[in-house]
């Protein structure tokens, strides 16, 4: 299960870490204390064993064990007695008064060759520890016994660990209590610390939550926030800035669209209202209808260009690339503008090769050519010239169109591709140019990675693009 | 009444001109601000219908120039810009009224009429001269309770005289306010229309309303000698 809350994650993570660390520490301390106390117990047991072993004397061949119960009463009978068992040369020599003859302290783990300790169950059914202490019998110098004949034995001594177990249990509970107490205190402190630590996040969340779409221009203040949050706030403010710019662009665009359509709608409405205001001859109605259709056509062009632009920007326009004759396409597209050019007495130089077969999206390229030709015919001065050229060299087709009387300054060249930008803000050419054509051309060519270029040479405005067959021609991805 | 229409979108300009012309106004028109200023210097327009986005000289500059030259014309701004800032800016520069595109043509006519009344300090839509009533809103005329049928040009002439009631207006003033640049004006056209008006307005037993001021012009007033 994925934990989504940062606060819960922090609390859970630190609590688990704390429990593990304190648990391990408690176990280590307990082990250390246990080992130390058991070692002390064993040392005490060994001392008793050594003391008891000192009672074993050798006189010649005789072994005497003269244990004095008065001096070591703990080995006498009682509720919690100590025990010993003396073995000399493989023979059980004696046992403590507390141990019955039939009972034994020997243990499989204790060989008797070395001093060793182990836990056992005592004859009185209590837990205890036993030590196996190998010893050599005490020799009286007066007996002149050969040291090599010295008798060896093993003394087993055992004592109950009742007090030791109780002490260890008490210490264990104390350690556990201390650990749990530390966990509880630290946990409470941790909750307060984490709450305090995540409060700035809540503050930011509140600020973001209270923001409206109109507040995008006001960045979130990160002055009093922790430095860890600053990068996030900076990036969020950057995002807000970009969103604000995008919203502003959209608002400006919507206003531009509304503005662009208002004037032709006003023209259409006024034309129809005035026409309808009184009975007229059929020819007058027909003329009004023609004017209206022309305005509708202009609005339709604006709307269609907007739709194409929107689709191009949304990546919804699919390229349809087939082998086609680019030269033919240019001649055919120009043919629809030739009569307008003639009416304006334009000098036209159409320098296009007979044929140029290459993979192109003819439909979109025709839209581009129509826009470029329309601009050239519309903006060239009466009696001016329009040059249309297509140079084909090694699978590279370089298309250019230039015209006189452009009135564009070099600084205005980049603005040509802005939506709704016009040299003169005022509507000209009967409202047929809404400032969308070049923006659309740029988008349509960009679908294939082709750039549209513009420059000015003396009195001529030149615009064009280069298609490279097989490299970045109008082909699909 | 003479109106100048300044609008660069030709279909709209032509429709507005036709509608105003058919309503009896003398209408001149142009599609750019430069010509608008030249026209305004040449003739005195009662109302100028002015688009703001114009080629050559923009509408706000035209407005500013008109006000700087103390032009008496009332200006009705006609624009697609509808933000409060745009309106405030236009009105601050001296526009008398503001109409947002697209508009209803009858509203434009009503605003033009209102501006004309304001120009001639006429607060009501009806002007009474004796038993003559000229309704500038309905563009109808009654005398002695009977409606008088007038052509658009005759009505325009009478309305101008009525708006200047008791004041002698010269033939030049009449010509300037009732005829546009395209009208074929003969030297005695004003006198001819005055004669036609008198025939329609005068009734036996009733006093004459249009009086000739020899060497000066004409005056509309109730009673009095020629």
Structure description:
The complex is a heterodimer of chains A (477) and B (226). With 477 residues, chain A is α+β, with helices and mostly antiparallel strands. Helices cover 46% and strands 19% of the residues of chain A. Chain A has a 5-stranded antiparallel sheet. In chain A, helix 1 runs antiparallel to helix 2 and helix 6 (362-379) packs antiparallel against helix 7. By secondary structure, chain B is of the alpha/beta class. In chain B, strands 2-1-3-4-5 form a 5-stranded parallel sheet, sandwiched between helices. Chain B has a 4-stranded antiparallel sheet with strand order 6-7-8-9, covered by helices on one side. Chain B has a two-stranded antiparallel sheet with strand order 10-11. In chain B, strand 4, helix 4 (84-92) and strand 5 (97-100) form a beta-alpha-beta unit. The longest helix of chain B has 15 residues, at 105-119. Chain B is elongated and about 60 Å long. Classes of the chains: A alpha+beta (477), B alpha/beta (226). At the A-B interface, helix 3 and helix 4 of A face helix 1 and helix 5 of B.
Quick tags:
heterodimer; A: 477 residues; alpha+beta; five-stranded antiparallel sheet; five-stranded mixed sheet; 15 strands; rod-shaped; B: 226 residues; five-stranded parallel sheet; elongated
């Amino acid at each position: 299960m994925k934990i989504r809350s940062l606060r819960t994650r922090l609390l859970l993570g630190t609590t688990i870490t704390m429990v593990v660390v304190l648990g391990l520490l408690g176990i280590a301390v307990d082990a250390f204390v246990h080992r130390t106390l058991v070692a002390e117990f064993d040392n005490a047991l060994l001392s008793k064993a050594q003391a008891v072993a000192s009672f074993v004397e050798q006189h010649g061949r005789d072994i005497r064990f003269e244990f004095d119960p008065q001096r070591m009463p703990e080995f006498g009978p009682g509720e919690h007695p100590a025990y010993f068992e003396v073995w000399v040369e493989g023979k059980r020599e004696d046992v403590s008064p507390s141990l019955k003859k039939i009972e034994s302290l020997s243990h499989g783990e204790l060989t008797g060759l070395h001093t060793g300790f182990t836990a056992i169950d005592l004859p009185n059914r209590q837990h205890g520890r036993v030590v196996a202490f190998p010893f050599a019998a005490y020799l009286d110098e007066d007996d002149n016994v050969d040291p090599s004949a010295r008798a060896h034995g093993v003394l087993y001594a055992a004592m109950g660990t009742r007090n030791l177990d109780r002490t260890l249990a008490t210490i264990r509970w104390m350690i556990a209590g201390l650990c749990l107490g530390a966990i509880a205190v630290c946990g409470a402190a941790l909750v307060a610390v984490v709450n305090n630590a995540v409060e700035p996040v809540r503050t930011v969340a509140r600020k973001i939550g209270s923001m409206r779409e109109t507040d995008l221009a006001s960045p979130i203040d990160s002055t009093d926030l922790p430095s860890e949050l600053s990068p996030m706030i900076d990036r969020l403010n950057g995002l807000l800035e970009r969103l604000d710019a995008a919203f502003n662009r959209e608002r400006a665009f919507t206003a531009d669209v509304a503005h662009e359509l208002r004037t032709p709608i006003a023209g259409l409405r006024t034309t129809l209202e005035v026409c309808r205001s009184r009975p007229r001859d059929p020819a007058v109605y027909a003329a009004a209808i023609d004017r209206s259709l022309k305005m509708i056509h202009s609005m339709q062009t604006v709307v269609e260009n907007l739709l194409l632009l929107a689709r191009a920007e949304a990546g919804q326009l699919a390229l349809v690339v087939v082998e086609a004759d680019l030269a033919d396409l240019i001649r055919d597209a120009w043919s629809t503008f030739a009569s307008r050019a003639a009416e304006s007495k334009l000098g036209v130089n159409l320098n296009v090769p007979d044929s140029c077969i290459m993979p192109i999206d003819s439909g979109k390229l025709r839209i581009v050519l129509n826009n470029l030709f329309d601009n050239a015919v519309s903006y060239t001065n009466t009696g001016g010239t329009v040059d249309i050229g297509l140079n084909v060299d090694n699978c590279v087709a370089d298309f250019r169109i230039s015209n006189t009387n452009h009135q564009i300054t070099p600084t205005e060249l980049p603005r040509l591709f802005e939506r709704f930008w016009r040299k003169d803000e005022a509507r000209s050419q009967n409202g047929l140019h809404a400032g969308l054509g070049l923006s659309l051309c740029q988008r349509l060519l960009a679908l294939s990675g082709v750039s549209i270029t513009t420059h000015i040479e003396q009195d001529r405005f030149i615009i064009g693009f280069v298609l490279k067959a097989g490299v970045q021609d109008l082909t699909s991805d | 009444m003479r109106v100048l229409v300044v609008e660069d979108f030709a279909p709209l300009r032509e429709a507005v001109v036709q509608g105003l012309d058919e309503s009896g106004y003398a209408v001149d028109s142009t599609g750019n601000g430069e010509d608008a200023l030249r026209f305004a210097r040449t003739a005195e327009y009662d109302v100028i219908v002015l688009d703001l986005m114009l080629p050559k000289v923009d509408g706000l500059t035209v407005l500013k120039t008109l006000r700087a030259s103390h032009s008496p014309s009332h200006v009705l701004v006609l624009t697609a810009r509808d933000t409060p800032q745009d309106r405030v800016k236009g009105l601050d520069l001296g526009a008398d009224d503001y109409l947002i595109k697209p508009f209803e043509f009858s509203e434009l006519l009503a605003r033009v009429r209102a501006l004309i009344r304001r120009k001639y300090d006429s607060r009501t839509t009806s002007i009474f001269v004796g038993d003559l009533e000229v309704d500038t809103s309905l563009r109808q005329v009654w005398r002695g309770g009977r409606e008088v049928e007038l052509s658009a040009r005759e009505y325009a002439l009478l309305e101008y005289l009525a708006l200047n009631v008791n004041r002698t207006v010269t033939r030049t003033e009449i010509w300037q306010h009732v005829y546009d640049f395209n009208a074929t004006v003969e030297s005695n056209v004003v006198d001819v229309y005055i004669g036609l008006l008198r025939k329609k307005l005068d009734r036996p037993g009733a006093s004459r309303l249009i009086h000739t001021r020899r060497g000066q012009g004409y005056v509309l007033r109730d009673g009095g000698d020629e």
